[in-house]
Write a structure and sequence with these properties.
heterodimer, A: 233 residues, mainly alpha, B: 323 residues, alpha/beta, 4-stranded antiparallel β-sheet, 34% helix, 28% strand, elongated
Amino acid sequence: MKAFVALLKKEEMALFTSPIAYVVMAAFVVIMGYTFTLTLFLTHVPTLVHLFLQIYVLFLLTVPIITMRLVAEERRLRTLEILLTSPLTEASVILAKFLASLSLIVVMLLLSYTYALTLAVLGAPDWGPIYSGYVGLFLLGAALVAIGLMTSSMVSNQIIAALLSLSVFLLLWIIDHLGWLLPDPFNAFVVNLSLLVHFRPFATGSLFFSDAGYFLSVTLLGLFISVRALARR
Amino acid sequence: MPRPDVIVVERLVKHYGARAAVRDVSFTVKEGEIVGLLGPNGSGKSTILRILTGYLRSSSGSVRIGGVDVTDHAARNNVGYVPEDAPLYDWMRVREFLRFMAEVKNVPGRAVDAAIASACAQLDLGHVAGVPVGKLSRGYRQRVAIAQALLNNPPILIFDEPTNALDAYQVIAIRQLIRSLAGQRTVLVASHVLTEIEKIASRIMILRDGDLLTADATNEANRAPRFRLRIVGPRQAVLASLRNVTGVVAADVQTVSPTESVADSVDTAAYLVETVSRPRIAEDMAQSIIGNGFALAELVEEKPDLERVFLDLTQRATETRAA
């Protein structure tokens, strides 16, 4: 446990001492601020649905930047050799990297919570959809980080890792459009692979176990493949 | 009481795709030995060390470290590993890095500070403890890499090319350091520099193209002694009398000036004689020479020549493969 805590601390330090985290957070806050202000002034409705959908897109674009270096960089610099010849398991290395990256997602979500507080000051928002939206965003973030970690574990070039995860994200974003073109029962299967199909209910205030199960399954699958990729040496 | 084997490698094979990097290698290392693994670049040294440390998985064969199979994570507690070129976290300060490594190596909480202080003292890192690793010279990086290997006081130390790309002073310092660390520990050092290995190790293994050519090159050298003689007499007759001695493998005139032939000269000449290892062979050669009426001016047994063994073995391996 102590070794895992040390590993997690090291990953947090690596993340929060690199400029990448701050650039991503700054871009996130600026774009969110613009979207929030614009939608509030245009609609005059105290809701964060538009903001959540905007965050969904931003996560697809920024998570590859957060996760690209996680394993690929350690592989390239050969620091994995130091790490994996100590009595650590591959699973603990992956889990520490996952939790550290997820903590950045949580910080970004906490930053965006200021908009919910602003709504509370200006009016009386319906808190149900706001909380369900945050649950959805957290689950989405976890799934995306796991996929990003998986691609980073498979290659030693971080740019390729970023491009690979971005490609997977974009595919999972639009795959429902392809699904509708397929015959039964393939259409239902492919449509259900879509990130947006499972995220939209959260953003609009509907919580379904099937949607949460989808994100948890993607997360676990991503972590499992990451561990296998790291163990394949 | 015989010392136990702390590293046991049996029929180790490692393939990278279709290429065999290590072929059927077996050896043992006894407790307290300082063993050198010598071989040209690409001979499979690093691959073997990485398998020994659990970083790589073998394609087949087995490795036991301190009685524990290397695939078991517990085996890593017994090994301190210093990889080639000291891959470290450049953004960490030296003390920070050592603390992190001590914690991941499960050094008990109270002992962490003492372990770091001891490693820093042993490697003279105290004055750079607050410096980021990325700002250190190569020599100091190597010291930090060695320090992290010592933190949990492992009984086995493994070094991969420890003096690579260091300047002459750093090479001497690191060499002395490794020898001083040996003491009660078992040390395995890989290098492609013969003179380095010769100065550090008490036993040398030679590797070529993934094959272990010998598990004890010094013994190999001792098994084929070489004598240098100065004899007065007709050279062909002297050579014949030397070759008649039982155990002589080869005898040749060592130097002949370009203007004279071996057959013509009857002056004093130096002879180089290779023999099998046999008691009293020097006396038998002297007796044969004197008995044939020649004058023996000098007979010296040459120190075992590792370079010769290395060249002979690697050349033989190349010829065998070509055949």
